[in-house]
């Protein structure tokens, strides 16, 4: 069950590239080598998505934040979609500002991609990185087809709006197995299949759609991840099958020799209904505790 967690306090970090709003639960001064602060990151999901998960970690301070292009945070250049390396630079700045490193990081989806980029660039910031279902299509044998599919989703959104764009996105993230080169051929999907309106509201500012050109096409620096001086764990949902977000962590684990850990549920296994999805948050948090705690007392978590 969810523990009694402290109410978050909200803060702002200003860098040359962004204004980052973040929340801290608990006293940062209580972090220890065995119980470091936990930084939970998503993209494009903001800090709200980790409310349930944070409640399971009242034994240590928990930090959540809004990435520079979503929620309460702001970027200096609104016309440029940040790449994983940009988000990694923001996370490095946040850890440095707080002075609590090395920390544990749990990254979800695009946040898992950004966490891997951080591990490659600044392993000294980290004790353990748990990258849960990073949709890093660049790591896969069908990377070119993944990139073409992501470009097609973005192009449909730009041409026809959010209904068609989101319907295309759902088809992409739920696709099982390698992507065929002709995935994007054919007519636009009908948004009504997913209970969404087909009309175009004229907006083209959805960060999820902008991220299609940066996050799921990303390829990790395998050599840096293989030799990084922090622990790197790739996570996959037990119910995720052969989706992009499940195939990529398996591939990265194989390429880097890092641990692959199966978590309860699917891509949103940790969710407690913050954005409508309800996973298996109690079981998920217990598994995450197990993975993090075993760094202090190393043994296999496979």
From TrEMBL:
Superkingdom to which the source organism belongs = Bacteria
Locate the region Disordered. Answer: 65-85
**Molecular-function GO term, any one:** triacylglycerol lipase activity
**Where does this protein have compositionally biased stretches of type Basic and acidic residues?**
74-85
Under InterPro entries, the record lists: AB_hydrolase, AB_hydrolase_1, AB_hydrolase_fold
Q: Name one Pfam family in it.
A: Abhydrolase_1
UniProt GO BP: glycerolipid catabolic process
The AB hydrolase-1 domain, residue ranges: 50-135
**Protein known as:** Pimeloyl-ACP methyl ester carboxylesterase
Question: Per the UniProt entry, what species is this protein from, by scientific name?
Answer: Microlunatus kandeliicorticis
């Amino acid at each position: 069950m969810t523990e009694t967690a402290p109410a978050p306090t909200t803060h702002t970090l200003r860098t040359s590239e962004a204004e980052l709003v973040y929340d801290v639960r608990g006293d940062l001064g209580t972090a220890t080598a065995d119980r470091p602060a936990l930084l939970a990151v998503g993209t494009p999901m903001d800090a709200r998505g980790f409310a349930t998960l944070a409640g399971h970690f009242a034994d240590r301070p928990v930090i959540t934040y809004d990435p520079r292009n979503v929620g309460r945070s702001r970027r200096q250049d609104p016309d440029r979609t940040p790449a994983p390396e940009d988000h990694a630079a923001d996370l490095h700045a946040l850890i440095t500002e707080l002075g609590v490193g090395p920390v544990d990081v749990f990254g979800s989806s695009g946040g898992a991609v950004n966490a891997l980029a951080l591990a490659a660039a600044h392993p000294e910031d980290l004790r353990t990185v748990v990258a849960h279902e990073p949709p890093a299509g660049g790591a896969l044998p069908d990377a070119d087809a993944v990139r073409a599919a992501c470009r097609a989703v973005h192009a449909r959104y730009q041409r026809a709006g959010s209904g068609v764009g989101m319907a295309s996105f759902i088809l992409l993230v739920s696709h099982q197995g390698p992507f065929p080169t002709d995935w994007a051929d054919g007519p636009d999907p009908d948004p009504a299949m997913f209970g969404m309106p087909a009309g175009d509201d004229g907006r083209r500012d959805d960060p999820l759609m902008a991220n299609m050109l940066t996050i799921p096409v990303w390829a990790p620096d395998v050599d840096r991840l293989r030799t990084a001086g922090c622990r790197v764990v790739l996570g996959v949902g037990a119910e995720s099958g052969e989706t992009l977000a499940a195939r990529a962590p398996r591939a990265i684990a194989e390429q880097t020799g890092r641990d692959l850990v199966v978590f309860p549920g699917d891509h949103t296994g940790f969710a407690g209904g913050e954005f409508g999805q309800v996973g298996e948050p109690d079981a998920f948090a217990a598994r995450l505790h197990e993975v993090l705690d075993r760094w202090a007392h190393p043994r296999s978590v496979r």
